[in-house]
């Protein structure tokens, strides 16, 4: 234990003397903040780009403020307010490093919250904090089902719906060319 120097402060014309021990075993406030910062989370080695048609579509207040995100373009999306994010969020309650989204080869979509100040919500339920999960020894990604609403931050923060299909939507639409033989035969029978 190292003693702190005695400091004298004037408050309402009274002199107050402050003296307290400084221990080297406890981290300083700046060190505590660094320790409480979001743990360094790396994407899993099995992450792959989404298959078929998969995207995050902005909804509610996010329409016109956020762009849709095509999830087939890369394996991992880092989401946050930082301009270095793969998906940049535009709201005061979003953290610079907010969340990470990735897919498994079986088509499942997963998300991790980086320990954001205002949280990440899926269908109104908060994702578990990585701080709480690390106390248990492992960080488990949260599975997001197609059609889920995902909000990054507090009320009014960017909200998206996960649209995911295991096939391309254009594959459903059969391109039919007009059948000219029927048009010709019907016009000749009318005469």
Instruction: Report the end-to-end length measured between terminal Cα atoms.
Output: 111 Å
Low-confidence stretches: 1-38
* Shape, per Cα inertia axes: globular
Using the CA coordinates, give the radius of gyration: 27 Å
| Helical content band | 10-25%
The helix/strand series, from N terminus to C terminus, equals EEEEHEEEEEEEEHEEEH
- Widest β-sheet, arrangement of strands: 6-5-15-14-11-12
Characterize the biggest β-sheet: 6 strands, antiparallel
Question: Averaging pLDDT over every residue, what do you get?
Answer: 76
Coarse structural class: alpha+beta
Q: Total number of helical segments?
A: 3
Account of the 3D structure:
The chain is built from three helices and 15 strands. The chain is of the alpha+beta class and 191 residues long.
Write the layout of secondary structure elements.
Blueprint: E1 2-3, E2 7-11, E3 14-18, E4 21-22, H1 29-36, E5 53-59, E6 69-70, E7 76-80, E8 87-88, E9 99-103, E10 109-113, E11 120-122, E12 125-126, H2 130-135, E13 142-144, E14 149-152, E15 159-165, H3 180-189
Parallel strand pairs: 7-8
Antiparallel strand pairs: 1-4, 2-3, 5-6, 5-15, 7-9, 9-10, 10-13, 11-12, 11-14, 14-15
């Amino acid at each position: 234990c190292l003693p702190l120097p005695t400091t004298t402060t004037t408050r309402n014309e009274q002199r107050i003397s402050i003296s307290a021990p400084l221990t080297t075993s406890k981290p300083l406030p700046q060190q505590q903040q660094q320790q409480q910062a979001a743990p360094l989370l790396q994407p899993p080695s099995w992450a792959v780009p989404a298959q078929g048609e998969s995207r995050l579509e902005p909804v509610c207040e996010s329409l016109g403020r956020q762009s849709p995100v095509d999830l087939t373009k890369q394996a991992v999306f880092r989401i946050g307010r930082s301009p270095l994010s793969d998906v940049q969020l535009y709201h005061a309650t979003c953290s610079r490093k907010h969340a990470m989204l990735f897919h498994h080869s079986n088509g499942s979509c997963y998300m991790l919250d980086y320990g954001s100040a205002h949280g990440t919500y899926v269908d109104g339920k908060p994702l578990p904090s990585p701080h709480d999960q690390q106390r248990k020894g492992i960080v488990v990604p949260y599975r997001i089902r197609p059609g889920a609403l995902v909000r990054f931050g507090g009320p009014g923060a960017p909200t998206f719906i996960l649209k995911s299909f295991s096939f391309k939507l254009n594959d459903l639409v059969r391109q039919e060319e007009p059948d000219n033989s029927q048009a010709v035969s019907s016009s000749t029978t009318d005469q």
